[in-house]
Every structure is written in structure tokens, then in C-alpha cells.
Amino acid sequence: MDKYDLPQNVLSPKARRATDPPIAWLLRMPIDDPEIISLAAGFVDQQSLPAKEMADCARELLGGDENKASLQYGATPGFLPLREEVCRMLEKQGAGKNISPEEIMLTGGSQQLLHLITDVLISEGDIVLVEDPTYFVYMGTLQAAGARVMGVALDEKGIIPESLEEKLRSLQSSGALEKLKLVYLMTYFQNPTGTSLTWERKERVYEILSTYCDLGRRTFVIEDAAYKELRFEGEDIPYLKSLDTQNRAVALVGSFSKSFSPGLRVAFSWLPPQLLHHALRQKGNEDFGSSNFCQHLMHRAITAGRYSQHAEMLRVRYREKRDLMLRCISESFPSEVHALKPLGGMYVWATLPDGVDAGCDSRLFKEALSRKVLYVPGEFCYCPEPGVEKPTNNLRISFGMVTEENIADGVARLGEAVRYVLS
């Protein structure tokens, strides 16, 4: 008997359904072997983390007795002055008007937000629609909740409206539409493909959902905008949330992790009141408030102008790293490999010729590993659906944490592996 095993009747149904996220063992491999260059980890740029800015914020925050409040427990919804700053930020970005801090909730990272919304809405057998491919860590959360996850195709402009309408019609004709609880969309520089949903498609997607679904009562939309602040090219696009003018149907999820510091674990959400009420109940029973100190630090970083300065610096840095990675791909990869050019975020999505397997058990993955380089097999990012065949010829590579030297070296090694497999 394995030391971690428990009898199945001891574990809860949710625990029995939970599995290790695929990224866990990919992250362990470079730790076990430091010679491995990881193009897999979706971590932020290590060299530009705001250590000095945080030291300054902490000194200012703790400089007098009146500031000891940051070391005390906080409120379940989060530090009110930071929620007010989030309102101002979202209004400035055109998400909505007269946003109330009472509709904002702060959490320990956006993953907690996704977990809370899922716990509130999803029962075993409920349906969740996701972009296909999508953020594979959230698929693990949905799997543990017992959701029936169904994929909707996307292209370089984001989720395809016609594919969404076809899926909804199919659910309607089978009588399953009433089981649809969530539609999960990453609208900016999506993980893993780096694509963004265009404004025209946002309007069409919202129109389709409004036509087929009981939005705001039975079905909600999660707009995951974790990478929005990392736009380094092209025009800004309004939030999908801006179409939800009555704040009834769209749960907007944002984070300061990618644009400032993931170690702070501070994320925010603007939720419809009927959803927020239950999410706060759930959160209160889990932690009755995320880190108060970290929220005070984040508030100080914003009001002192350090956050905006850091985010602007990151946009320049990530653009340079993206350009370097794309140049190296062009030089090292065969011409048959197609790599999407992201306008923001941290990822490049590459597609190999049809019939070439990039999965974790593939010849390519083993060849790459023998050359001490890692990538995320694209197969992890497609939601498994019985009877539906999904592509295995994609791979995700990240320029977030890896240094410029290792981008060049790692892409060259990966290119060697690809050429070897295609030869």
C-alpha cells in the first residue's frame, strides 16, 4: 500500500476526483537537474521582480505605530482602500462606471477566485464551456468539482462564435443546456496560445450567450484577465465585462501576480452581487480574509506609483524577450512549424505538422529532454472529452522567467529535437 493511499470510502468524492496538475512534475525536473532549461514554467521574469520597491513599501508601511494595522487580521472581502483603487483602475480601463468597492473581492491569487466561483456554482455533472485549448490548471479544479468540461474551438482572434453557437444549440437540442453553469474565457493573451478575444468577437459571444443562456441566474461567464496588463503591442481592447452593463452575468477576474509580484498572492474580482454574496460566504469559511499585510503592500505600491512604473517596465522587457524567442524559433525550427506571435503575455504557441506528436510520451518530448530542455505538451491544454479527438502536435513555450541566454540556448536545443524528429 502506498503511504499516501487511503480507502476510497474515506476520501470525499472531490478528493477522489482530484489529480496532480501536469505542470507539477514539469516544474520539479529542472530542480532535480539544474542543467535543464525550462521553457515550460509560466513564472514571471525573475530578474525584474520588484524587490527594492517592496522593501521601500514595507519600510513606509511599518514606519510608525499607526501602521501596525497591516499586521492584523483583515476583512473577508479585502482591504477597503485597495478595493477602491481596483475600482478606479477598472473604471479607467473602461470596464464599467461607478463601480462600487462593495462589489470587489480580493483573494490570495486568481486561482483562489476560480476555486471559490467553482465551489459556489458547480455540482457534479454540471457543464462548463472552455476555450479549447485553455488554462489547464483550472481544468484540474473543474475535474475535482465533478464538472463536465466541454471545449469550444478558438483561432488567432480568440474563441470562435460559430463554434460556441453550435455547442449551445447541441446542448439545447439534447436538453442539457440547463446544466450549463459556467463559460470560462481568457480574454487577453490567453494561456496557452497567447491569443486575445477581439472586440467584435466579444460583442458576438455576449450576444450568443444572452440568446441561449439564462445569464445571471443559471449561467455565468468568467472573464479571466490575468495577463491584461502585459500588452506590449497593438491597441487595447475593452473588457468583455463592459458589455455586462447591469453587473449581472460576468465575473471579472484579475491579478497583480503577472504584472507585479506573484509572491504577494493578491488578486481581485468584480462580481455580480448575487454571486459575490455566496463567494464571500465560502471564502469566510475558508480563510476569513487573505493576507492583510500583502494587500496593504499592494495598495502602497499602487498609490506611490511603483506599480504602474513596474508594469510599464515589464511590458518593454517582455516584448524584447518575445522578439528574441520568435527570432530564435525562426532560426532554429523547421519552416513547417508555425508559431503564433503574441501581442502580450508570456507564451508562444507552436504547431507542428499534422501527425507529429508533441505529447509527454512522444519521441519529441524524449528527444527534447535528452537535450536538457523542457516545454509544455499542448495535449495538457485541451479538455478531455469522451469520443472527441484532440490535437497532440502543439507545444507551449514561455519567455517569462527564462533568461535571454537560456531563451537562445533552449530554443536552439528544442529546434534540434524537432528537426531530428522530422528528419
Biggest β-sheet description: 8 strands, mixed
**Global morphology:** globular
Strand content: 5-15%
Rg of Cα set: 22 Å
Q: Care to count the β-strands?
A: 14
Helical stretch tally: 13
Fraction of residues in helices?
A: 25-40%
> How many domains would you count in the coordinates?
2
CATH topological fold name of the largest domain: Aspartate Aminotransferase, domain 2
Unreliable stretches: none
The CATH architecture of the largest domain: 3-Layer(aba) Sandwich
How confident is the prediction overall: mean pLDDT?
94
Strand order of the largest sheet: 2-9-8-7-6-3-4-5
Could you spell the SSE succession in H and E letters? HHEHHEHEHEEHEHEEEHHHEEHEEEH
What is the end-to-end distance? 45 Å
SS class: alpha/beta
Name of the CATH superfamily of the largest domain? Type I PLP-dependent aspartate aminotransferase-like (Major domain)
The CATH class designation of the largest domain is: Alpha Beta
